[in-house]
Amino acid sequence: MYGRWRAFCATANALGAKIKAGSYQSFRTYLHLLHRLGLVERELRPIGRLTCPYCGREIPIYPQMIRRKRGRIEPVHYSLIHAREEDPARLRSYQALFPSTDWRRKTPEEKRRLRKRYGSRRTISAR
Questions:
Q1: Region label for 87, one of left (φ > 0), alpha (ψ between -120 and 50) or beta (otherwise)
Q2: Is 1 in a helix, a strand, or coil?
Q3: With 0-12 CB in 10 A as exposed, 13-18 as middle and 19+ as buried, what is 21?
Q4: What is residue 46's three-state secondary structure?
Q5: What is the pLDDT of residue 74?
Q6: Can you give the pTM of this predicted structure?
Q7: How far apart are CA 114 and CA 15, in angstroms?
Q8: Phi then psi for 18, rounded to 5 degrees?
Q9: How buried is 39 (Cβ within 10 angstroms: 0-12 exposed, 13-18 middle, 19+ buried)?
Q10: Which pLDDT belongs to residue 119?
């Protein structure tokens, strides 16, 4: 999915748009936020079929049915919920998930005051 997103961004940039694909981790975070907001859902896709030894029927096998080996990541597919396709929370997922936070832009003076009050995460003391 991330590979398709990067390919889409490359095509859009070739056509004149200015879109950055971002890192894989930021893409996973965004997808997780959309899942928490209920805008996307996990989709079960069979990865194979197995014949039942008792009845002879073919049973679809899903990634969740397979015992995971160490270091192996099973694929997870997501699908867009079409009823909420135009939801504005899709563009501002953090603001929709945490509405009580002050999301407005702060002036440099206000940022200095907040850093002085709460401390800066960027300063690392050498010991």
A1: beta
A2: coil
A3: middle
A4: coil
A5: 63
A6: 0.61
A7: 42
A8: -115, 85
A9: buried
A10: 80
H/E run at residue 60:
strand 58-61
DSSP state of 59: E
Q: What is the DSSP string of 38-107?
A: TSEEEE----EEEE-TTT--EEEE-GGGSPPPTT-----EEEE-GGGTT-GGGTSHHHHH-TTS--S---
Measure CA 40 to chain center.
10
Pairwise CA distance, residues 117 & 112, whole Å: 9
- Successive 10-residue mean pLDDT values, the chain, 127 residues: 88 91 90 90 78 84 65 71 87 85 87 84 55
